[in-house]
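Exercise 3.2. Students should predict the tertiary structure of the chain below and write it as structure tokens, then compare their answer with the key that follows.

Predict this chain's 3D structure.
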Amino acid sequence: MLITLKGLVLRETKVSDSARYITLLTEEHGKISVLVRGAMKPGSAASLPTKVFCFSEFVLYESHGKYRYNDATVIDSFFGLSGDYTAFILASYVVGAADFVTEEEQPDAGIYRLTLNTLWALTHLEKRDARIIKGAFEMRLAGYCGFAPNLFYCADCGKPVVEERVFLDVMNGCVRCADCAKLHNTAVYDDNDIKVDDMRTAMILLPLDVPVADALRYILAAGDSKIFSFTLADTWMPEFLSVCEKYLENHVEHRFEQLDMLDFD
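Answer key:
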């Protein structure tokens, strides 16, 4: 049976000199594997739409849950990524993270839209700030995976904390006011530069200043097309980057290799 759907190529896996599997992220079917034959031949029409990052409308043969490539029309190749090192590495991180957190044949419209919107922002958004895009992607992805933190009330005393410095309890997905954070028999990591691997405790408390907390609240509540539409002073950017990265990394329990290739100093 022939089916038509839009999909983003997350990964390529070579299986022979003439065939490979591509992993597509789709809205209707979630993540699927598609067999592509002949794409590596010079001049093959299948070459471009089956490359990583390419977003296309695919025509596939489907039989008993197996998919085979028939044809495709490119919608956006995100070609501009190739000319910007930081954007390219970030895009690789984005598709790798989307691949890691999704399951075969399990549709997730939120993650699908987030991944596409992030690649679009990295490629086409005027006056883009890669730091904003990275952090927003990480926190929003954590939310779609079911790990959105409660950033409005102290988890211990219950008081509103929207106008004061707090501590983000990473693993419990909540915040604790400064007074309550001191009551826990655990290390409080005042230095956001400490690597996750060096945090030897069951509770990780990271400082969260008001501007950064406000940014996280915005990211989690904004519409899909608006999550990158905010600004943050350079003063708060190291904290923002560290908190978002550590929060996602701890909840998905995976360190993505692309992170070690990025330097925003």
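Discussion points: The longest strand covers residues 2-14. The longest helix spans residues 130-147.
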